[in-house]
Amino acid sequence: MTQIFPPQGLPFLKMHGAGNDFVVIDSRARAEAVVTPALARALGDRNRGVGFDQLAEIRAATAADSDFTLDFWNSDGSRAGACGNATRCVADLVMRGLGRDAVSLTTARGALFARRLTDGQVWVNMGAPQLDWAAVPLSQAVDPLHLPLPGDPVAVGMGNPHCVLFVADAEAVDLAALGPRYEHDALYPQRTNVEFASALAPDHLRMRVWERGTGITLACGSGACATAVAAHLRGLTGRQVTLTLDGGVLQVDWRDDGVWLTGPVAHVFDGWLSPDFLAAHP
Predict the structure, then answer these.
(1) Among the options 89, 163, 220, 225, which is catalytic?
(2) Which CATH class, in words, describes the domain spanning 10-126+265-280?
(3) Which of 50, 78, 184, 250 has the least C-beta neighbours within 10 A?
(4) Can you give the pLDDT at residue 64?
């Protein structure tokens, strides 16, 4: 079918992993990044923009052993240091473009490796967890395994900070009320993602999440990794864990070489940001 209006402006993709949804912008052919805080906030508006949990901008490789670089943004215009599900989605996109089943990439988290499995799911090594209070980071020297906060949470860094609480019933947690309290607690100088999890079995957790700079999301890849690490450290699970989230199921395997995250990916649609929209949000 002939297009009534030929595409102009900036192309983007919409993707999701277990309901954790992303706008993806491919800037590999550009000399500089195109995403700004203003553009990220405008795009993140689900009524006046496109809407997303995070935005991922694909950049040209910045390291000799890397296929591409990824930058992440939250819907409030702040930067995100890591995003496991977006990493998996973009890795799948790039693998398809290159005709390969494995890629290496660079994020603020460092060098990462991703592979497509035979069932179509994508596996990414999210690196070693940050377990020292200063690396998470926390604002003072406390025991990350038992934070001095209500609910006795665990602090884990996965390139971004996490606050993991183990509760009797994750379904009963009022995320909208409790999430912001922990996100903005002074113990987390960079704010934090907040996970509430219930142990269903020694290898199965039910998890729900409040993401910093975004709010309630259906899934969070780095949050699943942090929760699996915290659960093992608390003696609730082994190192291989299935996590059931509001949007789907993720698997985490904490190995000697890092925390491996596996789950589904989906490419939903392609679109174009109009020149007028771009001009209004420089």
Answers:
(1) 220
(2) alpha beta
(3) 184
(4) 85
